[in-house]
Amino acid sequence: MSVALVRRPLSIARAYEELQRPESGGVAVFVGTVRPDRTRRGRVVALEYDAHVPMALAALEALERRVVRRYRLTGAVAWHRLGVLPVGTAAVIVGAAAPHRAAALRACAGLIEELKREVPIWKTDRARRARRRRRPTGRPRGRAAGSRRAR
Amino acid sequence: MSVALVRRPLSIARAYEELQRPESGGVAVFVGTVRPDRTRRGRVVALEYDAHVPMALAALEALERRVVRRYRLTGAVAWHRLGVLPVGTAAVIVGAAAPHRAAALRACAGLIEELKREVPIWKTDRARRARRRRRPTGRPRGRAAGSRRAR
Amino acid sequence: MPGSVRLLLFGPAREAVGRAALDRPLAAEGATLGELVDAVAEEFLALRPVLQASRLAVNGRYASDRRLRLAPGDEIAVHPPYSGG
Amino acid sequence: MPGSVRLLLFGPAREAVGRAALDRPLAAEGATLGELVDAVAEEFLALRPVLQASRLAVNGRYASDRRLRLAPGDEIAVHPPYSGG
After folding, report:
1. Which end of chain A, N or C, is less packed with Cβ atoms under 10 Å?
2. pLDDT: which is higher, B109 or A40
């Protein structure tokens, strides 16, 4: 079981390592990435993710415990990245492992649904700001902010 | 879009690379691994996967095209490994990318359901044989068989 | 700051105020959660609609009772609707 | 083998016969899919129940008509229920 709020890139390979156990017949992973949505201020080039860290970690842990129990999972991850993330970047990875595929798939969908509903994390559109500062859109500011793990 | 039957290890990181596009807001990946099921002949230590390769590739392609159209996916993968795979090894990876998460998650579940139903691939339990030959259970025979890509 | 409380502003609340945190002195006789929030809404007009849609938390726990008495050092978090993921 | 056809055996069919493929000569006047399958079922008792649950494919296409006339070089695949994934 693993929850995290991090300022460095999320790795699906690392999430899979965390989930893979001999008794897991099925591992489902969902990655949510920053989309180039159109807004009134222009096309989104980056989103900034912010969290109320201690409450968000507690909410992630409660969510994970609940989903693990409900679907009898052998493993679960719920990792969210914080900071300014350019379009295409992975912002969230959730995953579930279970002896059978249906439980893993349903649990994975449940994790992302409930994460969005229950965990104090917010995104703010950085389209305009990125343009005004003439920052190259490909440059991930979040990474430059340091790679500290929130816990 | 990518289908494959391979004799080398499957990589979830490579599947994600294949799926990740700026316009994909959600990427869902499912990995099916060999479980240590109990059978009449003892506990499974490995499964052998075999396919009718040309028909299986055609079925995978048809399946992928159908699911991509049905869920308006921006990307899809359906990769299956063949050969003798010890418990814990990834045998299949399917994945779907879409602008929104619900489509990606539903398409991913659909891919694995329909793959199991429609694609001429078979597993055979290698519990007894593995024991008789005193092959170390951790050693993946499949890998030794060569890493040729089926196409 | 002794004798003061800190407001933590997230997402749209932070955008409305232009800051992530505000320190506010407590009245000598103490003040309630409702009084603090009303004072801040008075000060930052753009924060009002956000506050109406937000949940509040005091020291890491959700608090819905506006009569809750605040103590020096309390952290009051303004949680607009979540939008992570 | 000229004048012969090849049976491809997968999964439980391969297990029942102990081989992945069988070459069989075609009768001079030709033979049908049904005749070939019946002859093989006669030869390998363990294959009978598997054949009943299997689909057949000829040269990569599913074939359900037992009267289908076979030609030298044809590949007949025996597909028991799939179990991949």
Report:
1. C
2. B109
Residue D11 neighbours by CB under 8 Å, 6+ apart: B50, B122, B123, B124, D80, D82, D83
Can you tell me the mean pLDDT for D54-72? 96
Instruction: pLDDT band for C3, please (50, 70, 90 cuts).
Output: confident
Evaluate whether A36 touches B23 at the Cβ level (below 8 Å): yes
Nearest-by-Cβ selection for B124 from D11, D79, D85: D11
Pairing of strands B46-51, B83-86: antiparallel
CATH number for domain C4-79, candidates 3.40.640.10, 3.40.50.2020, 3.10.20.30, 3.20.20.80: 3.10.20.30
**Chain A contact for B6 (CB, 8 A cutoff):** no
Q: Of D9, D55, D75, D82, which to mutate for an interface test with B (greatest number of B Cβ within 10 Å)?
A: D82
**Residues B27/A88, Cβ–Cβ less than 8 Å:** no
Give burial (CB, 10 Å; 0-12/13-18/19+) of B124: middle
Segment A43-84, tens digit of pLDDT? 889 999 999 999 999 999 999 999 999 999 999 999 999 999
pLDDT tens per residue across span B115-125: 999 999 999 98
Indicate whether this model's pTM tops 0.80: yes
**CB pair distance less than 8 Å for B26 and A30:** yes
All structural domains of chain D with their residue ranges: 4-79
pLDDT at residue A127, rounded to an integer: 61
Domains of chain A: 2-128 (3.90.1170.40)
| Inter-chain CB pairs, B–D, below 8 Å | 60
